[in-house]
Amino acid sequence: MAPGGGPPGTVVRLSGAGCFGTGAGVSIDTKHPEGHVMARHVAQTLADGTWSTMFSMDVPATVGNYGVAAVCVTGASRLPYRVLTFTMLGPDDGSRPGPGPNLPTVG
User: Fold this and answer.
1) Which residue, 1, 23, 41, 66, is the most exposed by fewest CB within 10 angstroms?
2) pTM
3) CA dist 78 → 45, 71, 81, 105 (Å)
4) Taking Cα atoms as reference points, which of 30, 43, 35 lies closest to residue 73?
């Protein structure tokens, strides 16, 4: 997953492999730091079992670590991938490039 953190609205790219089977797809949940699902995304797999998707971390967000949980779904089978973490940063915490309110500009 890249990037692993940013402010609300950050576009994330997530990819994986090993999801085979007729009608296989990947369900991706974004989980709030308290554990409840904030958003769900779906990715289609290619014939070789790989998949890739992009989505925006634009959930109503507070600063914290959000889980990104992908599951390969094939028929009745559900095979989870390792849960990843996206660190949601606040809008004024220095996470964006450029001068902040207390930084000098060079000109």
Assistant:
1) 23
2) 0.79
3) 14, 6, 10, 52
4) 43
Q: What is the domain class of 5-88 according to CATH? A: mainly beta
Beta-ladder partners of 5: 87
Q: To which residue do tokens 């492999």 refer?
A: 17
Residue with tokens 């904030």: 38
Q: E strand or H helix at 20, and its extent?
A: none
pLDDT at 105 over 80: no
Residues 20-37 pLDDT 10s: 988 899 999 999 988 899
Nearest in space to 41 (alpha carbons), one of 66, 64, 65, 63: 66
**Is the Cβ–Cβ distance between 82 and 61 less than 8 Å?**
no
Task: Delimit the domains of the chain by residue range.
Answer: 5-88
Q: What is the mean pLDDT of residues 77-99?
A: 76
Structure tokens at 82: 């390792």
Cα distances (Å, whole numbers) of residue 44 to 2, 16, 61, 89, 97: 19, 11, 27, 29, 34
